[in-house]
Design goal:
The structure holds 2 protein chains of 2 kinds.
Chain A lengths: L16 H4 L5 H4 L3 H4 L4 E5 L2 E7 L3 H10 L5 E9 L9 E9 L4 E9 L5 E3 L8 H12 L2 E3 L35 E5 L2 E5 L15 H10 L6
Parallel strand pairs in A: 2-5, 6-7
Antiparallel strand pairs in A: 1-2, 3-4, 4-5, 8-9
Chain B lengths: L2 H5 L9 H10 L4 E5 L3 H9 L22 E5 L7 H10 L5 E5 H6 L20 E3 L6 H16 L11
Parallel strand pairs in B: 1-2, 2-3, 3-4
Classes of the chains: A alpha/beta, B alpha/beta.
The complex binds iron/sulfur cluster.
């Protein structure tokens, strides 16, 4: 909105780069320079600001936001899978923070390479991270180092996949057919044997054909 | 008014034991509501006064499978719920019948995803399916009539239902 009406003292058509650079967000300005320099980018959408970093730099920023800037509420932790997109890494781990006195939302996006299995847990900073991290682990297979109870949260404990990965098919790989048929026969209930369980396909264990197809269709990553 | 007036006189009645048992069973179905989603709301409406399933003898809703003989599966069944449903079905004493209510329980409905069971009839026997999303209470009442028809056709010595 503010770009539509340039300030009157600036002649039109002479927008220098410094004019397009907005003032740093107050939260960002309050970060120590050593930490602040690790922020790659800043995005604002819907009045909410997000900082983009690489793992594991987010840990230092989160610690600072928690203890120095008093973000006492961790709303959510989630992740995004950018498989097949033109991004620097495959995953983003997203932290949504909230400061109650001035109702300020801040997001922190941490790029997570596909090869890296784990990110540091923030359970010691916010207790509410326990279940958020469990859910993110359940859906994406990301391991949160230091979470004391990283079991599956939504899916059955023996579920063989991480369903929100982009290379996991929407209809699953046959997990939903893995139950015996129970039916009465005479005085007893009999169970027909279930179908064999599908091959375990954890993170990085998808079928070679699928990986090939995805790689063919995706643009190369900029590193 | 009731049976007595038909019997009349000395109070004797000749019938087949099969018909008598089936008559008793079909007019006193005890439903076990397995409501997991929006269809359960219509099921509750069916049980309540406006539609009043008790007009057809099926008002004794039991939340324990041990005391019921009609399982009404109403709602989405997901991967984690299917073992529970099977356990409840096994715990019901014979004879027992199953209504699969709504599109989700019968075939997965619009939820064709990794965690949704695409029809409970893959894993437990279903006697009557009720189409709809959600089915109207009248449809569920009609399904109860269908179950009653099935019950009145049961044979005591058929080997089915634990006899
Ligand atoms: S069939 Fe429709 S009303 Fe019934 S559980 Fe499914 S979505 Fe809900």
């Amino acid at each position: 909105m503010s770009d539509d009406t340039p300030p009157p003292e600036t002649p039109p058509g002479d927008a220098s780069p410094s004019n397009q650079q907005p003032a740093p967000h107050p939260v960002r300005a309050a970060l120590p320079p050593l930490i602040e320099s690790r922020i790659l980018d800043e995005v604002t959408h819907g009045g909410q600001t997000g900082f983009i970093v690489r793992t594991p730099d987010q840990r230092a920023i989160l610690e600072h936001l928690r203890f120095e800037q008093n973000f006492e509420f961790l709303k959510d932790i989630t992740a995004i899978d950018f498989l097949g997109r033109d991004t620097i890494e495959r995953f983003q781990v997203v932290y949504v923070l909230y400061r109650i006195p001035d109702k300020l939302n801040i997001r922190l996006h941490a790029w997570l390479p596909e090869e890296v299995e784990s990110v540091p847990s923030v359970v010691d900073l916010w207790d509410s991270a326990r279940w958020s991290e469990r859910e993110t682990h359940d859906m994406f297979g990301i391991v949160f180092d230091g979470n004391p109870d990283l079991r599956r949260l939504l899916m059955p404990e023996d579920f063989p996949a991480f369903p929100l990965l982009k290379d996991y098919p929407l209809k699953g790989r046959g997990e939903r057919r893995q139950f015996p048929l129970v039916r009465p026969r005479g005085n007893e209930m009999v169970e027909d044997a279930p179908l064999p369980y599908p091959v375990s396909i954890g993170r990085g264990m998808h079928t070679p054909e699928y990986v090939e197809e995805v790689q063919r269709e995706s643009k190369p990553r900029k590193k | 008014m009731g049976l007595e007036s038909m019997i009349g006189g000395e109070g004797f009645l000749t019938t087949k034991i099969n018909d008598l048992v089936n008559w008793g069973r079909k007019n006193a179905l005890w439903p076990m509501p397995f409501g997991t989603a929006c269809c359960a709301i219509e099921m509750m409406a069916t049980f309540s006064g406006r539609y009043d399933i008790s007009r057809f003898g099926a008002e004794v809703v039991r939340f324990t499978p041990r005391q019921s003989d009609l399982l009404i599966v109403s709602g989405r069944i997901c991967l984690k719920m299917m073992p529970v449903l099977q356990k409840i079905y096994r715990q019901m004493p014979e004879p027992k019948w199953v209504i699969s209510m709504g599109a989700c329980a019968s075939c997965g409905g619009v939820f064709d995803t990794y965690t949704m069971i695409q029809g409970v009839d893959q894993f437990i026997p279903v006697d009557v399916y009720v189409p709809g999303c959600p089915p109207r209470p009248e449809s569920l009442l009609d399904a109860v009539f269908e179950v009653q028809k099935i019950v009145s056709g049961e044979k005591l010595d058929s080997g089915k239902h634990g006899s």
